């Protein structure tokens, strides 16, 4: 199905099931521990061995010697494969860091060996018996050093005359900010069971957000025909972008299986999640804003750097500054610095989360300079067109309504406007807000639907990373076919199924439901053809054409009818800006003596098109908000700038928000539809919640204390000396 | 994890004798820290002696008017004990500030005292650490290291790790004593100050226990009353080790005691600092933190300790 123009009024505007609050269809499996996650799929492969990786203990250099003699003769060990045993594996375009093989080490905890044994304990113990010698090469690990040195920042775009605008502006801001590197820190580590016993046909039971990308990456890495590779990833214990790619778990399990002729399972040990897998790069950002005294912004100048291994793209923190707010003159530059830390790559709202964490502090600072309310300042500088390219309008943008609804619901008008001016006992109370913006791209997405005796099976390689894909896909199929939720089985995450968008970039919900809709329409075509009618309505389990009505379970008379199609998104979208918008409002308490900061409440108002399921969508936004609290207050992959790695590589040292950090949270969805996005008029919500949330916390802390922090995480040591105490 | 042998011994003195006899022995009670360390091969015991059957799991009154806490009393049971909550509230508060409820249910009193540091370099076997491997060097002391959580006082040129226990800080301020039995069946009592060692040039030696010697309990002296507080400062609201913690007892005569956690290789207290309590937080810390050697990254702990005490002393 081609989607070449904005959707007109359609069945989803009169929905029975779409847009209604359905609890997740896989919920019972999840809470009873019976949803099969990759490492626990005990019935898929006969008698698997267990692999355990050894990571490099240096950040950069060459392995000069490896001796695995003792490991090979250890109890229970079936095989040891070292990096020196095989050539460097070919790298797929989607991988930046090398995953295995060869003498060169390019980051700490790069996998340099895997031990395959009968048990996890045996494999783990034997890895410690492998002797490794290195020739270490000095590396570069300090982003601040790079920032100081950097002269030639890449200009991404420049419209108008930014320098002239700053020269003539009545008010200007020029500040530098830091964001920390972040780990996805998902509950389920990367894990794979691989069966490549014959060295020809490979089956992987894994935990991966993007089935087809990863199948192709495996084909490249192992020089196989992709048709000989099968992937299953039906349940995923969190990904956040960390499982978009082929990673070492799958590579080592596959190599181990080929070597031993038996299935092999490998889960990355927790420290590997931080230093072997990918992470979000920290950034240094300089942001300048110019405005006239009426509060209208005349110029933005935003430059940033992030780190990457050679060949990667880092964390682009400036992109959303190009078009979130109005202003005639604008310049952004991003430089991804080649450094020797582990691979930085996408994490929930890549770029936006870190860029808005800074832009939205700067907006607060600018509002204060102008003597304006920060909500009013944002409303005044709203735009309905891309300010870089004014011919490009926003398809459906209700940012102002988000701000207004949020301010009203939160009680913004009643807030204390004097920073440091509200105290309850030993606690300073502050309120702050920030805007949220995340583009809402879509990706062509396919599905197959099979109707047999009134039951519908949906098959697509779309994944559910805890987001609710199973549920919204069942809703879409039931809605389109005139069935009930209970009549639909959804099967996901299998490379045998038609290729879908996968889960990433806030694209999955909108794209995959559109693909399922296309497949259902194809099935409807099969059905009407079978019935010999021109057109029909599908309602109440019936096919209705004129005065003729046939139950869906009877149309095929015992046969199975199949519809398969993909939704292809047309070029017309390129002429539009399609995005999601939000406003966060936060209240914090900061201890006047110790600087401990505790969130008191948070409200997010979201404009994200049609909300397919308010329960699962709310969970997505809550998750994003929660992650933004972590980014604001605690999360930081600390860099050992001498040794070049993240030493706090466990969940005790890398502090994500815990339940006690997350009190009263509220999400409001505006009732909007965006026909330019998909036939369902839906957009993404998976990443909107994290965008801007950290800045709302920062701004609330400023309101509480009068101390402006510009470096994340906003920990107490950054302000202790300036707090009032008594 | 290295392969190990395992046995249960249901008498403390016999367990001590056995541990002395078998090289590489370790006692296991709750195992909340030891098992983690064994998985990383930071601890590599050849033999585990399970002491959970020794019956050291009650809290009884002493003739001196105090309480004797068995080494196996769980952190949960101890923190919730009515006598502890009434007469030693600083201890109850410290216990519930630590770990998570699941860990507190398993963790024992003796094990809590013996938990190892949370220094990230200690926890990473690929990094040089004098505690793990005497003479290997200390990655935390190198330029560029991540030291924000590490110690500021009582540290040495060989180790700047902190002791992570909350419970021990409260026990220190209560003048509790650790009771042990030796392989020969001799019992002795040590103050917390005597029990814990400073790293000096032997950071692998963390306490005064002799080979085989086992903790049988902790003895609390008669209640001292007063206003008892435990203030644990951390970045997130729960489930994190202290950046700084302060255990405070203020008695009605304006005197009192202060101990710090999160700053040193042992619960940190000085009697001459206690004597300054009437003069305010700054005066106390001038004594208590005299000789501190912070890193650039953790110098904030000095300010934080003073401010945390000031918060406790403030009448608001």
TrEMBL record, chain A:
Q: Enumerate the Pfam families for this protein.
A: Ald_Xan_dh_C (PF01315), MoCoBD_1 (PF02738), MoCoBD_2 (PF20256)
Instruction: Give any GO molecular function from the UniProt entry.
Output: iron ion binding
Taxonomically, the superkingdom here is Bacteria
Which SMART domains has this protein been placed in? Ald_Xan_dh_C
Q: Which residues form the Aldehyde oxidase/xanthine dehydrogenase a/b hammerhead domain?
A: 32-138
InterPro entries with a match to the protein in the record: Ald_Oxase/Xan_DH_a/b (IPR000674), Ald_Oxase/Xan_DH_a/b_sf (IPR036856), Ald_Oxase/xanthine_DH-like (IPR016208), AldOxase/xan_DH_MoCoBD1 (IPR008274), AldOxase/xan_DH_MoCoBD2 (IPR046867), AldOxase/xan_DH_Mopterin-bd_sf (IPR037165), PaoC-like (IPR049648)
User: What SUPFAM superfamilies does this protein's entry cite?
Assistant: CO dehydrogenase molybdoprotein N-domain-like (SSF54665), Molybdenum cofactor-binding domain (SSF56003)
Specify the protein name.
Answer: Xanthine dehydrogenase YagR molybdenum-binding subunit
Provide the species name. Vreelandella songnenensis
UniProtKB/TrEMBL annotation, chain B:
- Gene Ontology molecular functions: FAD binding; oxidoreductase activity
Question: Where along the sequence do coiled-coil regions lie?
Answer: none
Q: Does the keyword Flavoprotein apply?
A: yes
What are the FAD-binding PCMH-type domain coordinates in residue numbering?
A: 1-225
Lineage, top-rank taxon, reads: Bacteria
Query: What name does this protein carry?
Result: Xanthine dehydrogenase YagS FAD-binding subunit
Keyword annotations of the record: FAD, Flavoprotein
């Amino acid at each position: 199905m081609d989607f070449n123009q904005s959707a007109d009024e359609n069945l989803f505007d009169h929905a029975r099931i779409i847009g209604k609050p359905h609890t997740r269809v896989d919920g019972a499996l999840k809470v009873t521990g019976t949803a099969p996650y990759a490492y626990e799929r005990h019935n898929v492969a006969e008698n698997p061995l267990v692999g355990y990786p050894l990571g490099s203990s240096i950040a950069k250099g060459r392995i000069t010697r490896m001796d695995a003699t003792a490991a090979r003769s250890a109890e229970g060990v079936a095989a040891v494969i070292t990096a020196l045993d095989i050539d460097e594996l070919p790298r797929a375009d989607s991988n930046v860091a090398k995953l295995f093989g060869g003498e060169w080490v390019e980051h700490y905890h790069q996998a340099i060996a895997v031990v395959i044994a009968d048990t996890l304990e045996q494999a783990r113990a034997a890895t410690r018996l492998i002797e490794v010698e290195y020739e270490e090469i000095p590396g570069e690990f300090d982003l601040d050093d790079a920032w100081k040195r950097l002269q030639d920042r890449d200009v991404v775009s420049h419209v108008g005359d930014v320098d002239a605008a700053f020269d003539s502006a009545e008010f200007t801001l020029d500040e530098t900010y830091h964001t920390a590197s972040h780990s996805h820190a998902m509950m389920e580590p990367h894990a794979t069971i691989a069966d490549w016993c014959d060295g020809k046909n490979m089956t992987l039971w894994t935990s991966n957000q993007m089935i087809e990308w990863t199948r192709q990456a495996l084909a490249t890495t192992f020089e196989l025909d992709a048709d000989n590779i099968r992937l299953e990833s039906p349940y995923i214990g969190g990904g956040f972008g960390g499982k978009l790619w082929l990673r070492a778990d799958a590579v080592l399990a596959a190599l181990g299986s080929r070597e031993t002729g038996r299935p092999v399972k490998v889960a990355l040990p927790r420290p590997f999640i931080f230093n072997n897998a990918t992470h979000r790069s920290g950034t240094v950002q300089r942001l300048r804003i110019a405005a006239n005294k009426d509060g209208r912004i005349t110029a933005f100048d935003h430059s940033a750097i992030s780190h990457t291994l050679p060949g990667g793209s880092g964390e682009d923190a400036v992109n959303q500054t190009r078009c979130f707010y109005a202003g005639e003159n604008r310049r952004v530059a991003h430089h991804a610095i080649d450094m020797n830390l582990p691979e930085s790559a996408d994490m929930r709202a890549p770029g936006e989360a870190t860029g808005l964490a800074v832009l939205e502090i700067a907006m607060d600072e600018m509002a204060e300079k102008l003597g304006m309310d920060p909500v009013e300042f944002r409303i005044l500088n709203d735009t309905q067109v891309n300010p870089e390219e004014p011919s490009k309008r926003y398809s459906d943008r209700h940012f102002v309504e988000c701000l207004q609804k949020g301010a009203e619901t939160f009680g913004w008008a009643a807030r204390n406007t004097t920073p440091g001016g509200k105290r309850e006992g030993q606690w300073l109370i502050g309120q702050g807000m920030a805007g949220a913006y995340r583009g809402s791209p879509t990706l062509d997405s396919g599905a197959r639907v099979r109707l047999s005796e009134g039951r519908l099976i949906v098959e697509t390689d779309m994944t559910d990373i805890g987001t609710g894909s199973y549920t919204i896909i069942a809703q879409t199929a039931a809605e389109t076919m005139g069935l009930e939720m209970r009549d639909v089985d959804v099967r996901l995450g299998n490379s045998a199924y038609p290729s879908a968008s996968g889960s990433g970039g806030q694209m999955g919900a909108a794209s995959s439901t559109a693909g399922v809709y296309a497949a259902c329409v194809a099935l409807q075509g099969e059905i009407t053809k079978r019935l010999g009618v021109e057109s029909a309505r599908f309602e109440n389990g019936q096919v209705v054409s004129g005065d003729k009505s046939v139950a869906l379970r009877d149309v095929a008379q015992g046969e199975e009818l199949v519809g398969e199609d993909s939704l292809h998104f047309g070029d017309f979208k390129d002429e539009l800006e399609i995005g999601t918008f939000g406003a966060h409002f936060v209240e914090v308490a900061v201890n006047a003596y110790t600087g401990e900061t505790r969130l008191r409440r948070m409200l997010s108002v979201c404009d994200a098109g049609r909300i397919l399921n308010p329960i699962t969508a709310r969970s997505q936004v809550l998750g994003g908000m929660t992650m933004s609290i972590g980014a604001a207050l605690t999360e930081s992959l600390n860099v050992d700038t001498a040794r070049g790695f993240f030493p706090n590589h466990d969940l005790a040292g890398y502090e994500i928000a815990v339940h006690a950090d997350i009190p009263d949270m509220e999400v409001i969805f505006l009732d909007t539809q965006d026909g330019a996005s998909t036939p369902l008029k839906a957009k993404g919500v998976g990443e909107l919640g994290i965008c801007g949330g950290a800045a709302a916390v920062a701004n609330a802390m400023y309101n509480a204390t009068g101390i402006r922090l510009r470096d994340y995480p906003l920990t107490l040591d950054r302000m202790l000396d300036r707090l009032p105490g008594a | 994890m290295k392969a190990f042998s395992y046995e249960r011994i249901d008498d403390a003195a016999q367990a001590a004798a056995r541990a002395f006899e078998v090289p590489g022995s370790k006692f296991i009670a709750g195992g909340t820290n030891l098992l983690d360390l064994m998985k990383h091969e930071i601890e590599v015991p050849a033999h585990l002696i399970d002491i959970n059957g020794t019956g050291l799991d009650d809290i009884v009154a002493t003739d001196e008017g105090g309480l004797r806490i068995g080494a196996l009393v769980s952190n949960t049971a101890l923190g919730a004990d009515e006598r502890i909550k009434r007469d030693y509230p600083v201890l109850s508060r410290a216990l519930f500030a630590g770990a998570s409820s699941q860990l507190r249910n398993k963790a024992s009193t003796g094990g809590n005292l013996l938990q190892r540091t949370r220094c990230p370099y200690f926890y990473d076997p690929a990094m040089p650490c004098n505690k793990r491997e005497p003479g290997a060097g200390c990655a935390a002391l190198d330029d560029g290291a991540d030291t924000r959580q590490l110690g500021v006082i009582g540290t040495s040129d060989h180790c700047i790790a902190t002791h992570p226990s909350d419970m021990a800080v409260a026990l220190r301020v209560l003048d509790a004593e650790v009771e042990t039995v030796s392989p020969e069946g001799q019992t002795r009592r040590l103050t917390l100050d005597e029990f814990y060692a400073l790293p000096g040039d032997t950071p692998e030696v963390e306490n005064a226990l002799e080979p085989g010697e086992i903790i049988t309990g902790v003895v609390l002296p008669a209640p001292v009353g007063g206003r008892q507080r435990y203030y644990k400062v951390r970045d997130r609201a729960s489930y994190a080790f202290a950046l700084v913690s302060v255990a405070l007892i203020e008695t009605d005569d304006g005197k009192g005691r202060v101990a710090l956690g999160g700053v040193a290789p042992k619960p940190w207290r000085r009697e001459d600092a206690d004597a300054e309590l009437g003069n305010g937080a700054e005066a106390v810390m001038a004594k208590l933190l005299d000789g501190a050697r912070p890193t650039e990254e953790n110098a904030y702990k000095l300010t934080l300790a003073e401010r945390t005490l000031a918060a406790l002393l403030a009448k608001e």
